[in-house]
Task: inverse folding
């Protein structure tokens, strides 16, 4: 008997004799809310775990490695632009050195001066080429943004028969390249009398399948409850579209503007325009660069000149996109 009693008492820890059970413990009060002791302990464990993850995610070594990776990637993508700028400032004998160098030994603006001298002696004034390019870029981008937004709104937020079929049909158009429809498009333009007019470039901009797909993706993420609240307040569809929807999807149409400006600004020779006075700056500069190796430096200067406007539009749009995304967050 004494052996059994000793065995039983040997298994008992004296510290546990006066320990309260979870049922006997008093609940804790935090922020006016009564929490059970077990819940409080679980909360502390979660906080310690979250703090541990936070310390791991914000480690100095990880931040340094991440920024080094971004720095190397940025150098990789910026190298072609820097190399083009460098070559546009080199003299002829320095352009053909091997191995090529990135640093310019004797910088000069002669290539840019030669470019403007060549364009000044052309049959059509350079100002005419610039006007045509700006006209096509501005109105082509405007038509594309408006048509894509106005078509994407009912396809996304209105229920009608055939909606999914129309969107699927427009999406399937992405599988075909513009070259595949060259003959049919030319026949249509000729029958409409739009050969040697800007309409042959601007009107096709209204039917961009990629633009419709891009804008519809942004409109799909807009809460339907906001539109219903506007209708209850008496707002019409036109006011909802211009005053509520368009400002809210600003990152979407700014992104489309960047793509459209790049496309129309670089529009060169087309099969619809034959008159020299209607052609664009890209076409005129490509004719200058086609002279061959004798104008290698001028060709690099042409690349920089054609790059200026799209880069400026991208920088301005990028800052506005980030600002809009930071200030226009909405919850359904």
Result:
């Amino acid at each position: 008997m004494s052996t059994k009693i000793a065995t039983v008492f040997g298994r008992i820890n004296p510290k546990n004799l006066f320990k309260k059970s979870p049922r006997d413990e008093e609940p804790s009060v935090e922020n006016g809310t009564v929490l059970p002791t077990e819940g409080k302990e679980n909360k502390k464990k979660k906080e310690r775990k979250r703090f541990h993850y936070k310390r791991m995610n914000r480690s100095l070594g990880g931040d340094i490695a991440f920024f080094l990776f971004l720095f190397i990637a940025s150098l990789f993508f910026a190298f072609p632009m820097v190399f083009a700028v460098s070559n546009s400032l080199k003299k002829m004998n320095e352009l053909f050195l091997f191995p090529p160098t990135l640093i310019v030994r004797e910088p000069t603006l002669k290539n840019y001066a030669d470019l403007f001298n060549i364009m000044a002696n052309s049959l059509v004034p350079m100002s005419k080429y610039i006007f045509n390019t700006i006209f096509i870029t501005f109105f082509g981008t405007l038509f594309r943004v408006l048509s894509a937004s106005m078509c994407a709104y009912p396809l996304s937020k209105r229920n009608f028969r055939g909606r999914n079929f129309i969107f699927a049909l427009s999406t399937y158009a992405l599988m075909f390249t513009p070259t595949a429809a060259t003959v049919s498009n030319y026949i249509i333009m000729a029958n409409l009398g739009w050969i040697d007019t800007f309409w042959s470039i601007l009107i096709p901009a209204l039917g961009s399948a990629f633009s419709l797909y891009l804008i519809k993706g942004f409109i799909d993420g807009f809460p339907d409850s906001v539109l219903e609240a506007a209708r209850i307040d008496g707002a019409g569809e036109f006011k909802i579209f211009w005053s509520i929807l368009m400002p809210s999807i600003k990152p979407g149409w700014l992104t489309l503007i960047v793509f459209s400006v790049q496309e129309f600004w670089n529009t060169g020779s087309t099969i619809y325009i034959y008159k020299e006075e209607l052609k664009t700056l890209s076409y005129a500069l490509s004719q200058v660069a086609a002279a061959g190796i004798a104008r290698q430096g001028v060709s690099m200067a042409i690349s920089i000149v054609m790059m200026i406007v799209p880069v400026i539009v991208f920088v301005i749009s990028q800052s506005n996109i980030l600002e809009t995304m930071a200030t226009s967050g909405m919850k359904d």
